[in-house]
Write a structure and sequence with these properties.
Layout: E1 2-6, E2 11-14, H1 16-21, H2 27-33, H3 36-39, H4 43-56, E3 58-67, E4 73-85, E5 90-99, H5 101-129, H6 133-148, E6 153-159, E7 164-171, E8 183-186, H7 189-196, E9 211-216, E10 224-233, E11 236-244, H8 253-329, H9 335-362, H10 365-369, H11 372-387, H12 404-409
Antiparallel strand pairs: 1-2, 1-5, 3-4, 4-5, 6-7, 6-11, 8-9, 9-10, 10-11
Helix pairs in contact: 5-6, 5-8, 6-8, 8-9
Length: 410
């Protein structure tokens, strides 16, 4: 667009490209009807350009916003100079105007895309930083609100076991509901019933239509309506974003797609967190069961060792004493019978010794009474005596006696 105006804003000349750029059909319509001041979205944009031209005499690539005939905004770059028209005696401006609306739209789109990627990255970083669901939800909500330029928002999670939707994160005015009771009412009761059903299977989709819920708070006289966007994972509703309907009237297809993508991404994170919690709970239960099994086994070993020592051991001792008494009653001349009794006593003594060793191996009394170090020292001393091995035993790293469970395991 090529133009000439005087200092007061009267359009002196404009080419056909400029006429089309401004949305007019004829050059005369622009020159007779419009003033240069009417081209600008705000009058101060024109005043600022005039100040620069009057001070410097020229300007290059001055960026501003025009308004077309139908009210549409267009971004332009102006390069112009100030000169004195000798024929008219006026101070005039002449220059070139470029329509950069498409470029600005691409720049805005690129910046928005960068903010969206930054949002997704912040969620990923939060997930990698710690498996804390509240931290992930708070980080997601704060960054999302910054992206869509809102101050109030919340994230609700669906709990099918209790058939409720619970507030998990809130920012702005909705944060007041975090620590007080209230009721969530869906505008569409059929949707509420469907989302709370365990067997509900949603078809795969990049995004789902928004819906409305209201917060029924006994402390508030009026009901607060929220515009909501579903958070889903593998065909199941996990929760939803919620924004004050009074401040969120319209949404572009791009924002709807963003909500859907973010909802699917966050739904996966929430489900992973729940699975990790369930896994930790099962692992805890398994550890508890294993510990109980170990304690039961150890108690059974202790019982068997005690019975072997107290009952079977005493019985063998009684048998040995009985054989000794029987041996004294047999005359010396019955040497064959005495030898049989002697062999029996020797076998009983051996059985008694093995029984004591078995009882000790099942549950060493020293381990229970004095601890791990004396029990190991006594055991290794017996091994050394049986095998003629020189064993040097030193126990380090224990400033005090470990727990009985650790001693038994070691």
């Amino acid at each position: 667009m090529i133009f000439i105006t005087n200092e007061n804003g009267k359009i002196k000349d404009i080419n056909n490209a400029g006429v089309k750029m401004l949305g007019y059909n004829r050059k005369e319509d622009v020159m007779n009807v419009m003033s240069a001041h009417d081209l600008y979205l705000k009058p101060e944009f024109r005043h600022k350009l005039s100040e620069i031209l009057n001070q410097a005499g020229e300007v290059k690539d001055y960026e501003t916003i025009f308004r077309k005939r139908d009210g549409t905004k267009i971004h332009v770059l102006i390069s112009a100079r100030k000169f004195h028209n000798e024929s008219s005696g006026e101070i005039e401006y002449e220059g070139i105007i470029k329509d950069i609306t498409q470029r600005k739209m691409m720049e805005d789109s690129l910046r928005r895309r960068n903010r969206e990627l930054s949002l997704l990255n912040s969620i990923a970083v939060a997930m990698n930083h710690m498996m804390d669901l509240h931290y992930i939800l708070d980080t997601t909500l704060k960054n999302l609100l910054k992206l869509i330029k809102l101050k109030d928002g919340a994230i609700f999670l669906i709990h099918r076991d209790s058939k409720t939707c619970k507030l998990a994160s809130a920012v702005g005015s909705l944060a007041r509901y975090m620590n007080r009771p209230f009721e969530i009412i869906f505008k569409d009761s059929l949707l509420m019933d469907a989302l709370l059903k365990e067997e509900l299977q949603l078809p795969p989709a990049n995004s789902f239509p928004p819906f409305h819920v209201t917060i029924n708070d006994p402390e508030d006289e009026k009901m607060l309506w929220l515009r909501c966007f579903l958070v889903a994972f593998k065909g199941k509703g996990i929760g939803f974003f919620a924004f004050d309907s009074a401040h969120f009237q319209t949404i572009s297809s791009h924002d709807l797609h963003l909500m859907g993508s973010l909802g699917n991404f966050l739904g996966g994170a929430i489900e992973n967190f729940r699975l990790m919690n369930a896994l930790k709970a099962h692992q805890g239960e398994l550890r508890t069961l294993t510990q109980r099994l170990f304690e039961t086994q150890e108690e059974e070993r202790r019982r068997i060792a005690r019975e072997l020592h107290d009952e079977a051991g005493q019985s063998l001792t009684a048998i040995n004493l009985g054989l000794e008494g029987l041996e004294r009653l047999i005359p010396d001349r019955n040497q064959a019978l005495l030898e049989v009794i002697y062999d029996i006593r020797r076998l009983v003594t051996k059985a008694s010794t093995e029984l004591r060793q078995l009882s000790y191996r099942l549950h060493p009394t020293l381990l229970h009474d004095l601890g791990l170090e004396p029990a190991l020292r006594s055991y290794l001393r017996q091994v050394s005596m049986r095998t003629n091995l020189e064993i040097d035993f030193q126990m380090v790293g224990f400033d005090k006696r470990p727990n009985k469970e650790i001693e038994t395991a070691l």
